[in-house]
Write a structure and sequence with these properties.
Elements lengths: L9 H12 L6 H31 L4 H18 L1
């Protein structure tokens, strides 16, 4: 495992230390690694979204497909109400 030096603002360090003190993480390092995993997940979601956007731009939905999706969204909205 590699080790790096990181500069944090006083506010960032207080947040990090309070998360450790609250028991959310065993150490500062564990908290930082968890943050990096979240960043990785967000970047993956952006890449997937970009892929979907590119695919739908290349082959737009038909009018019928749009109607089906709108109807499904309406049903999902009713189920959540």
């Amino acid at each position: 495992m590699s080790q790096i030096a990181v500069r944090l603002t006083e506010g960032e360090l207080r947040l990090l230390d309070s998360a450790v003190a609250a028991g959310a993480f065993r150490s500062r390092a564990e908290a930082v690694r968890a943050g990096i995993r979240l960043l990785e997940e967000q970047l993956r979601e952006v890449r997937v979204g970009d892929s979907y956007r590119a695919a739908y731009t290349a082959t737009p939905l038909t009018v019928e497909e749009t109607r089906v999706l709108d109807a499904a969204a309406g049903l999902a909205g009713d189920a959540l109400s």
